[in-house]
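Final report, Chapter 2: Outcomes

The project's central promise was a pipeline that accepts a single protein chain and returns its three-dimensional structure in a standardized token representation, suitable for archiving and comparison. That pipeline is now operational. To close this chapter, we reproduce one record exactly as it appears in the project archive, with the input sequence first and the structure output second.
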Amino acid sequence: MSFQLRSSLIDRLRLSSLLDGISYLILLGIAMPLKYMADMPLAVRIVGSLHGFLFLALCWFLLLALIRKKLSFGWCVLVFLCALVPFAPFVLDRKLKEKR
């Protein structure tokens, strides 16, 4: 999971995918239990907003990758679907690393 300073579009997509995956796990594993078990709904509001922003960033980089023909439509659909499944972005990262 190393990132070099090349800052290619695929590297930006990988980074946004990983950050989105981490925020999703924090939302599901920490913020949601705090909301329902400790009566702290503010945790979900904060982490959920951050996760929403990171998800939109991921969608933006997916759109750019599709437009600039760095990834095929099928790859973009796969990345999008993996963003909806916990832990899937971390598995997908190895495959995207090969696409650079």
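Archive annotation: Residues 9-99 form one domain.
This record, like all others produced under the grant, will remain available to the consortium after the project formally closes.
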